[in-house]
Design the sequence.
């Protein structure tokens, strides 16, 4: 059948009409487009936007240990003590407790600390309190709630990862054993609510409740560091009602997924797959008139002018009642690139720097002009960490059995490693080359101290190696280069590059270092058997005290003896004696002198090659106020504030949609298609 | 037909058992319960904490043979990790996540919604766009439109999915600023804002292969006698293409559709992960990264079940779409 030219024309027009409708729909859709991920009604609210990549596994304060978990628990569960937000070295202040308690010496070498709770502290509003009386939604915190939290730490069923840190609390271990035994012997006992079990088991002998607001902790032997644990959510008061009610049964959440704390924020949304929301606690203890002077409730006045000049702190906040932000919203970002791009668009108020964009953001150790022009701020903070290469001091080649020869070998290997280059190559320079185990910000750290064996000096390393009897790295026993095994459980390509860097540094002085990367379990097995020579390890401090670094080298903590964290198996009687002396001393000149002598021993003996202390680079937008980094994992959101008007204005300025490419693409498609349609119908007609 | 179905279901069941065995062997060949426990409770936990965790999660049993029992005792083989693995999967008792102790069935329910929010529009739009474009280029076959589209299809097929995602986020989210770069909100009134970009990227990334495949079928159908007859009877182009060509090309299209439908539930791994969509694809990626064996085996098991279900449905749909096809 022949198609008339009129029909052909009509079909062509119909096709063009379809194209026009598609184009119009695309234009309309584009007109309503925005890349703002937040609702418009939040535009002017004081909401702080941040992100998280790894979801918390648990919010049980006795178990939560990771930074991702502490971001939530630290803001929801107030602690008896806190760190001063601005002072460095870190200093403890009263939190829920009226003051930092002084130690009291008791008979038999025991020691006690007595805490007095502030008045008017209440738990967050929650239905669990109906267990204590019908219709109840909250109640006042009492000292027994802290005792209950400590009992949970000792409870083997809770599986707290920090239980060993409380071993010196009198009767702590015995209480855990007693509980386990009672549960084994009596199934009825095991079915009772936790608080009843604890009561029947007799509680912890060294945790004494003297009335509703007084709590005494008795230690079997002095331990000044115990106070730091009271600045962490592990020891925050826990309501027995919350543990009993949130048991994960009959549709109720488990206590690991539901928080009932006393903090400045309460958890309003907990969907760890995509969003966590904290909302201001209107009944926070700081709002009770009797607590208006509490150091943890008002913004501190000890503001460093340098922080003001850098835009980190606003002096107008001094003395103001906290918290300032109504809501904190954490959105889940599994990948670094979208997270960083959303920060650049202004949809996150703070963020880190991804390595893909490091050079674009940082130039010459400062913000690039493009970033600075956006009003961004770069804050750096050295974290209380130490990353090191360790020697197995029980090894007959690199360890103590090799005597002076082994010591000189370790000193030579220490001199061959250039930490600065290591940091530049693998961490974009984000770190401080370490001179000792102690990082900046920790008492005992001395900026002027230069460890003579942590300076990169290949010539001296070669000389020491020759003095050790390994001239040019040759082992006279075999007449070949001395072979040393470098054991690790990291098998990634990135990690392998780092190990290669170290191996090539030692190759430079003639040593043959073989990298033996195995699975974690195989590596652990080697450690257990003592079948290793050198290894690389890191430590992030639990609390900012030199003891929490130097105990890593105490003989009692040696891996081979007690399975402790002293993987180098370093044992030096003088070091141990000084450690015991230093441990419970106040942080004064005498303690500094003792620490200096300990560092001298490490300097000479070289059980470690201290590599670096990690440095955190934090980017903040201009509208984020009071964002002084803390370094340690610590909840500081109550100190922060945002300026929503500035944020809204800049977000709009930075994110105006660009629509012309869509219109251009549509024109191109139409321009390319119309001639084809016309040609087709012309040929067919 | 019934005999055929029974046979297919039996084959499917055997395949599922094989998948479960393979999954168990492969997983425990590269890791062991200590590794899983270490990931779950953290590096710094005490040995007693690891041990307790393993007891709580049933990882304290031996893998294949429990030598605590006598050789004649059946529990020698039933009180093992392998037997427990099969029992749990076959009774759909998925247990709790190794990573955070949450019930896996709850996580599946929570993840299904976000996954479907992404995969259903992606599937429907991809199908409609692919069929429409394939019909269009088939209609204009051997013109420069046809050739240009085929070249573009080849180009789109040659680019890695990850590049589409990163480039798409940068171009559309960062430069053009049309949609959020990532994120999700279950509120239906704003969910479209978050899934628009991953859907757009998913459609573009998949359209090349679809158009090439469908065009070949359509062009072949267009050369058949019934098309000439339809034209001779005065059918318009649109009617010929949609009512005749498309309808007769349905069988291969159905194969693709029915095979794809079950996987809508398991989500899109890369898209969900990069766009922060808390679906089942993200759940799977997280389980792989976190040594979460309980969740991973559930996802693989469900994937295998859905795959087999898809195959059976495909065969049934053949018979429904074309009465000449008889199963048996």
Sequence:
């Amino acid at each position: 059948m022949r198609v008339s030219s009129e029909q052909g024309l009509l079909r062509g027009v119909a096709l063009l009409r379809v194209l026009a409708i598609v184009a119009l729909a695309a234009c309309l859709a584009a007109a309503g487009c925005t890349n703002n991920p937040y609702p418009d009604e939040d535009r002017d609210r004081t909401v702080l936007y941040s992100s998280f990549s790894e979801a918390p596994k648990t919010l049980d304060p006795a178990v939560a240990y990771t930074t991702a978990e502490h971001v939530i628990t630290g803001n929801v569960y107030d602690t008896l003590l806190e760190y001063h937000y601005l002072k460095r070295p870190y200093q403890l202040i009263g939190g829920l407790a009226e003051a930092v308690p002084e130690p009291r010496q008791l008979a038999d070498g025991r020691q006690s600390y007595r805490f007095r709770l502030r008045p008017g502290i209440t738990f967050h509003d929650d239905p669990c309190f109906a267990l204590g009386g019908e219709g109840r939604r909250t109640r006042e915190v009492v000292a027994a709630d802290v005792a209950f939290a400590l009992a949970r730490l000792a409870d083997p069923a809770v599986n707290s990862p920090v239980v060993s840190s409380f071993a010196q609390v009198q009767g702590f271990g015995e209480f855990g054993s007693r509980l386990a035994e009672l549960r084994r012997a009596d199934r009825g006992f095991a079915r009772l609510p936790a608080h009843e079990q604890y009561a029947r088991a007799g509680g912890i002998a060294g945790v004494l409740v003297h009335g509703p607001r007084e709590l005494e902790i008795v230690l079997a032997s002095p331990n000044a560091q115990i106070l730091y644990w009271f600045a962490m959510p592990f020891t925050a008061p826990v309501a027995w009602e919350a543990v009993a009610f949130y048991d994960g049964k009959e549709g109720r959440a488990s206590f690991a997924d539901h928080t009932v704390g006393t903090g400045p924020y309460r958890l309003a949304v907990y969907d760890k797959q995509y969003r966590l929301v904290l909302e201001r606690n209107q009944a926070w203890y700081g709002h009770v008139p009797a607590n208006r002077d509490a150091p943890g409730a008002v913004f501190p006045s000890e503001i460093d002018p340098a922080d003001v000049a850098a835009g980190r702190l606003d002096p107008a906040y001094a003395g103001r009642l906290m918290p300032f932000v109504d809501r904190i919203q954490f959105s889940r970002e599994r990948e670094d690139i979208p997270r960083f791009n959303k920060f650049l668009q202004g949809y996150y108020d703070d963020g880190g720097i991804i390595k893909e964009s490091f050079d674009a953001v940082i130039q010459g150790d400062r913000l690039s002009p493009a970033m600075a022009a956006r009003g961004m701020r770069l804050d750096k903070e050295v974290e209380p960490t130490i990353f090191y290469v360790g020697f197995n001091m029980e090894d007959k080649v690199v360890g103590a059995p090799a005597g002076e020869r082994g010591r000189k070998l370790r000193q030579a290997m220490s001199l061959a490693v250039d930490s600065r280059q290591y940091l530049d190559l693998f961490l974009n320079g984000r770190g401080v080359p370490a001179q000792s185990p102690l990082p900046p910000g920790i008492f005992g750290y001395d900026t002027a101290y230069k460890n003579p064996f942590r300076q990169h000096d290949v010539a001296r390393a070669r000389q020491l190696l020759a003095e050790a009897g390994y001239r040019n790295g040759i082992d006279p026993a075999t007449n070949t280069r001395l072979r040393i095994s470098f054991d690790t459980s990291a098998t990634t390509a990135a990690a392998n590059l780092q190990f290669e860097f170290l191996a090539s540094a030692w190759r430079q002085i003639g040593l043959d270092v073989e990298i033996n990367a195995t699975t974690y379990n195989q590596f652990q097995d080697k450690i257990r058997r003592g079948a290793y020579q050198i290894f690389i390890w890191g430590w992030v401090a639990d609390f900012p005290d030199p003891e929490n670094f130097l105990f890593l080298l105490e003989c009692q903590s040696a891996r081979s003896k007690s399975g402790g964290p002293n993987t180098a198996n370093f044992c030096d009687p003088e070091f141990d004696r000084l450690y015991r002396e230093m441990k419970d001393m106040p942080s004064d000149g005498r303690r500094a002198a003792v620490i200096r002598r300990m560092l001298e021993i490490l300097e000479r003996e070289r059980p470690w090659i201290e590599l670096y202390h990690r440095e955190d680079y934090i980017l903040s937008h201009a509208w984020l106020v009071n964002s002084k980094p803390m370094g340690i994992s610590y909840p500081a959101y109550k100190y922060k504030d945002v300026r929503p008007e500035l944020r809204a204005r800049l977000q709009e300025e930075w994110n105006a949609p660009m629509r012309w490419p869509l219109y251009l693409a549509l024109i191109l498609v139409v321009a390319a298609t119309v001639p084809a349609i016309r040609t087709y119908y012309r040929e067919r007609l | 037909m019934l005999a055929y179905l029974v046979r297919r279901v039996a084959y499917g069941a055997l395949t599922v058992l094989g998948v479960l065995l393979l999954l168990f062997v492969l997983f425990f060949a590269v890791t062991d319960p200590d590794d899983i426990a270490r990931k779950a409770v953290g590096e710094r936990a005490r040995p007693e904490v690891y041990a307790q965790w393993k007891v709580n999660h049933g990882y304290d049993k031996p893998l294949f043979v429990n030598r605590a029992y006598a050789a004649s005792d059946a529990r020698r083989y039933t009180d093992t990790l392998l037997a427990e693995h099969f029992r749990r999967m076959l009774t759909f008792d998925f247990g709790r996540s190794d990573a955070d102790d949450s019930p896996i069935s709850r996580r599946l329910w929570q993840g299904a919604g976000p996954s479907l929010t992404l995969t259903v529009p992606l599937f429907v739009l991809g199908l409609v766009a692919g069929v429409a474009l394939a019909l269009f280029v088939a209609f204009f076959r051997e013109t420069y439109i046809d050739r240009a589209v085929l070249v573009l299809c080849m180009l789109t097929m040659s680019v890695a999915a990850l590049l589409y995602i990163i480039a798409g986020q940068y171009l559309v989210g960062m430069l053009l600023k049309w949609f959020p770069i990532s994120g999700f909100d279950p509120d239906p009134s704003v969910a479209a804002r978050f899934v628009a970009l991953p859907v757009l990227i998913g459609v573009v990334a998949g359209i090349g292969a679809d158009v090439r495949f469908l065009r070949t079928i359509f062009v072949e159908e267009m050369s058949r006698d019934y098309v000439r007859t339809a034209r001779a009877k005065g059918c318009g182009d649109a009617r010929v293409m949609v009512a005749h060509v498309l309808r007769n090309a349905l069988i291969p299209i159905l194969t693709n559709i029915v095979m794809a439908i079950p996987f809508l539930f398991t989500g899109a791994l890369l898209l969900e992960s990069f766009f922060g969509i808390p679906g089942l694809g993200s759940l799977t990626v997280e389980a792989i990264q976190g040594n979460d064996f309980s969740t991973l085996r559930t996802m693989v098991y469900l994937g295998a079940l859905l795959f087999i279900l898809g195959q059976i449905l495909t065969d049934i749909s053949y018979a429904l779409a074309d009465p000449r096809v008889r199963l048996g």
Remarks:
- Chain A touches chain B through 60 residues (CB under 8 Å).
- Chain A has three domains: 5-33+657-684, 54-297, 385-616.
